[in-house]
Amino acid sequence: MDSKLQDLNVEFLFQAVLNLKTVEECYRFFDDLCTVPELRAMSQRLVVAKMLDEHKVYNDIVGLTGASTATISRVNRSLHYGNDGYRIVFDRMDEKTEGHE
User: Fold this and answer.
1) Which of 4, 42, 72, 83 has the fewest CB atoms in 10 Å of its CB?
2) pLDDT at 101
3) CA separation for the pair 83, 78 (Å, rounded)
4) H or E segment at 94?
5) Taking each helix axis from N to C terminus, what angle separates 36-53 and 69-81, rounded to the nearest 10 degrees?
6) Residue burial 36-53, b: 16+ Cβ < 10 Å; e: rest
């Protein structure tokens, strides 16, 4: 794991997030923790990553999300050369979806 993220404050944040149990709890926690623009930026990057993972093209992603091409490029780099964080989340979300069909 990348040591630039490893710090006690970040660890505390991650432990807090792991204790959330419902979407409603997430809304409440992140509303207290983040500004609206911060939360929108994080959620936009996640949606961009999902669209890239589904092989959507940049122009479509820009049109649907409003993300800049620079943001899309950064997210794409993380998808391909990062720590597989997006992959872990997408795979688990897919497993949950498949389990409910």
Assistant:
1) 4
2) 55
3) 7
4) helix 85-99
5) 60
6) eeeeeeeebbeebbbbbe
**pLDDT tens track for 46-80:** 999 999 999 999 999 999 999 999 999 999 999 99
CA 95/CA 39 separation, integer angstroms: 25
Q: State whether the Cα torsion 21-36-13-82 is positive or negative.
A: positive
Per-residue confidence (pLDDT) for residue 96, from 0 to 100: 84
Provide the whole-model pTM. Answer: 0.86
Q: Give the type of residue at 72.
A: I
The DSSP-derived string for 34-92 is: S-HHHHHHHHHHHHHHHHHHTT--HHHHHHHH---HHHHHHHHHHHHHS-SHHHHHHHH
Q: Give which of 61, 40, 62 is closest to 50, Cα–Cα.
A: 61
Give me the amino acid identity at 79. Answer: L
Contact 18, 55 (CB under 8 A): no
